[in-house]
Amino acid sequence: MKKLLVPTDFSAYADAALDFARQLAQKYDAEIYLTHVVLTPVNWTKLTKEQENLYPDTLEIIRKAKKELSLRLERLKEAGVRASEWLHFSDGKERLISYISAEKIDMVVMGSHGKYGFKAHVLGSNTYTVLRKAGIPVVVVKPSEGAFTFGKVVLATDFKEASGKAFQTLGDTIRFMGGTPELLYVNTPANFMENSQIKQLGEEFLQKFGLYPHEIHIYSAYNVERGIIQFAQEADVDAVALITHGKTDLQQLFSPSVTENLVTYLDKPVISLNVTAFDQ
Q1: What is the mean pLDDT of the chain?
Q2: CATH of the domain at 188
Q3: Is 104 among the domain residues?
Q4: Do residues 50 and 177 share a domain?
Q5: Which InterPro entries does this one have (predicted)?
Q6: How far apart are CA 123 and CA 165, in angstroms?
Q7: By residue range, what is the domain housing residue 9?
Q8: Structural contact between residues 4 and 33, judged by C-beta atoms closer than 8 angstroms
Q9: Whose CA is closest to 242, among 143, 146, 174, 149?
């Protein structure tokens, strides 16, 4: 976990994510890649200087964006953090995934407005859809007073073998941030099992994929996201983590939409990893 990508729209929520990334970078000598997306009416990188002058409004937006990026980059360097900036021009065709791959980014850190949820803030739903395909951990944080602390982190899992490698990566990510992952299985009416069955399933899963000792919690709820939210509130955890399976069907137990809802309703950092993209 040496390269952290922080998308920003220069809001207080994005700055909270940047501050969180700064704390990680200072503690673990990581490098921050700060990026901002400018929506352009055409493919901006293909224009000549003369053609750019035909879009004065876009030029002004770019000028302001460069200024804001430079200010934040300077603060990071003053804090002793290695950092670089990337101004990304988008005409509707996202290139963020290729950038993540080319730079070998290890983790994405993003901010969110708790009241409106993730998709309504920072970079919008289109960019979040791209990040679903990144195949690396995505951490969503909200503004917090003082330093972020990661002690107890609940990692919701379905104990399916397909999640095994992603489970190991997510566990390593949690430990990188200073947390201790505790496992949560939400027992729902649609997929009900007795506790003894769940424990056996969990033990078999950990025998194959567990790199460290893990405590297993079983929580009964009407659906997965409700169970995760209620457990996180009752157990007073510092953060929530889960592995999604890249489905858009709301009936899928661990679809990316569950992550979006957790971000909306929880005042805690949410860490997710898409197992479908991770395996590609």
Answers
A1: 85
A2: 3.40.50.620
A3: yes
A4: no
A5: Rossmann-like_a/b/a_fold, Universal_stress_UspA, UspA
A6: 29
A7: 3-141
A8: yes
A9: 174
